[in-house]
Write a structure and sequence with these properties.
Layout lengths: L4 H10 L1 H13 L10 H6 L4 E6 L7 H10 L2 E4 L5 H4 L9 H12 L3 E9 L5 H4 L3 H18 L6 E6 L22 H12 L4 E6 L7 H16 L5 E4 L2 E3 L6 H9 L4 E10 L3 H14 L3 E6 L25 H11 L35 E10 L2 E10 L4 E2 L1 E6 L5 E6 L2 E3 L4 E5 L6 E2 L4 E9 L6 E6 L1
Parallel strand pairs: 1-2, 1-9, 2-3, 3-4, 4-5, 5-6, 6-8, 7-8, 8-9
Antiparallel strand pairs: 10-11, 11-18, 12-17, 13-16, 13-19, 14-18, 15-16
Helix pairs in contact: 1-6, 8-9, 12-13
Bound molecules: ligand G3I.
Ligand G3I binds next to loops.
Length: 462
């Protein structure tokens, strides 16, 4: 079935009850001590996501879906958005599996990492047989068509996957994609940006866990892209590990972050007897890097893993939490929260003397909410991401007013509904993001034409 945006939003509305329930359970996932009891809630405390790769064929398995709904806030389709799945015949697109997963995510308030627009593996047979300019044309059409189909609905795309060679060369991997010309990666990123300006665009690879020839080759490419304005927003570190990550795992993430890109752990699974410690080490490294946006495990239960027999995931075949789960949860809970409340030094109480006329009491920690806008602009357009943060009380609905400069106009949006498109625009929460715990945040965004430089925002609880 081809899922249109209308049927998608209808499906999302139909699931409003489910999403509301989820919102409540996310709030309940924080104990009285402040430690969160699910991976997603624990990661959210420091503004991060915690995701899993999901197979559409498993969405009928209730144990699988219960864990997915309870624990994870981001979904990567394990195979359903790959080239062989989405364009099995040239120019004929099939989004059934990808849409199923996207719909599951939207209806439960989760976001989606798109995986992967171009990869030398899982090319459909017709593309495997192509070379040169004909292939280049087909590759770019694929990027444009798929990114356009999912426009505004994807948090981040793995635009190019695994294009660098293993070993000491630090160079590109040979493939028919690479043989179309060394500029194929930047051409793919530009095509993806043009098709979906709201999606973060990532380069994703494996064996890049420490500073080595391969990761340095990728580092140099990202540095070059940033210096020439090629649109790249993030680098994915697959992190298929056996035992501890290398000692310079965090330093390697940090050197990429210092180039001005987000880093994401995209396909984490860890084999070996030291698994619980190793999972803790990876998680601590991510939360120590401000631009490490989140972690995704490559599957949910050991029995779902592509690494048959290695039991590399956080849940056993029966869906029970493993020791590795607790290591990850503890490391997420230990992360520095975003919006930490500044500890106040207790002052010595002064002895009241002459009674003073009572003044209207001021609320020490105002409830309500605040909103901040970050802009990603280009000549003639922009994407605005708005962070809504609850004050000292939980929100059960919010309204944000943004003031756009003249000439700017909203063209599309996600995770909020708006009245108006120019000047003063009011945004209201949707079903799944109205409930925000005290001090916590949620995000929505919009895309527009013109320049939004100077935009201001205010927030009110509703
Ligand atoms: O669905 C068909 C089934 O109908 C058929 O009977 C069976 C026979 O081989 O194949 C099934 O498809 C398999 C598919 O997984 C679903 O299980 C493919 O053969 C198999 O090649 C495919 O493997 C996937 C692999 O990527 C190649 O695309 C794995 O599930 C997936 O976990 C793995 O994921 C990759 C990331 O995309 C990139 N990084 C590495 C990672 C692990 O290899």
């Amino acid at each position: 079935m081809k899922m249109t945006s209308r049927s998608l939003s209808r499906a999302a509305l139909a699931s409003a009850f489910l999403a509301t329930t989820l919102g409540v359970s996310l709030v309940l996932a924080t104990s009285a001590t402040g430690a969160a009891s699910t991976l997603g809630a624990a990661a959210a405390q420091s503004g991060r996501y915690f995701g899993a790769a999901v197979a559409a064929g498993k969405l009928g398995d209730s144990t699988y879906v219960n864990i997915l709904n309870r624990e994870f806030t981001m979904i990567t389709p394990e195979n359903e958005m790959k080239w062989d799945a989405t364009e099995p015949n040239r120019g004929q697109f099939n989004y059934s599996g990808g849409d199923r997963i996207l719909n599951q995510a939207v209806s439960t308030g989760k976001r989606v990492r798109g995986h992967a627009l171009l990869w030398y593996q899982q090319e459909p047979g017709w593309a495997q047989r192509m070379e040169g300019s004909d292939l280049r044309q087909a590759m770019m059409n694929h990027v444009t068509q798929v990114a356009t189909h999912y426009k505004g609905k994807i948090y981040a795309w793995d635009v190019v996957n695994e294009a660098f060679a293993d070993g000491g060369s630090g160079g590109r991997r040979d493939s028919n994609l690479q043989r179309t010309g060394n500029d194929w990666i930047e051409a793919a990123f530009r095509a993806a940006r043009a098709a979906d300006p709201a999606a973060k665009l990532c380069y994703n690879d494996y064996n890049t866990d420490g500073v080595n020839a391969k990761s340095t080759g990728i580092y140099n490419m990202v540095k070059d892209f940033k210096s020439r304005g090629v649109p790249i927003d993030c680098v994915g570190f697959q992190s298929h590990l056996s035992g501890n990550p290398p000692g310079d795992y965090q330093a390697n993430l940090q050197r990429f972050a210092d180039l001005g890109v987000e880093v994401q752990i995209t396909e984490l699974d860890i084999a070996g007897s030291n698994q619980a410690n190793a999972y803790g080490a990876v998680t601590r490294a991510c939360v120590a890097v401000a631009r490490c946006a989140g972690i995704t495990t490559w599957g949910i239960r050991d029995t779902d893993s592509w690494r048959t027999g290695e039991n590399p995931l956080l849940f056993d075949g029966n869906g029970n939490k493993k020791a590795a789960y607790n290591s990850v949860l503890d490391a997420l809970n230990a992360a520095t929260p975003t919006n930490p409340t500044t500890p106040t030094t207790p002052t010595t109480p002064t002895t009241p003397t002459t009674p003073t006329t009572p003044t209207t009491p001021t609320t020490p920690n105002p409830s309500g909410c605040s909103a901040s806008v970050s802009l990603n602009s280009w000549n003639g357009g922009f994407v605005a991401t708005v962070k809504v943060t609850a004050g000292s009380s939980a929100l059960n609905g919010w309204r944000v007013t943004t003031n756009l400069p003249s000439g700017a106009a909203v063209t599309s949006s996600w995770s909020a509904s708006n009245s108006g498109t120019t000047g003063s625009v009011t945004w209201s929460n949707v079903s799944y993001n109205g409930t925000v715990a005290a001090g916590q945040s949620t995000e929505f965004g919009f895309q527009g034409t013109g320049s939004a430089e100077g935009i201001t925002s205010t927030c009110a609880a509703s």
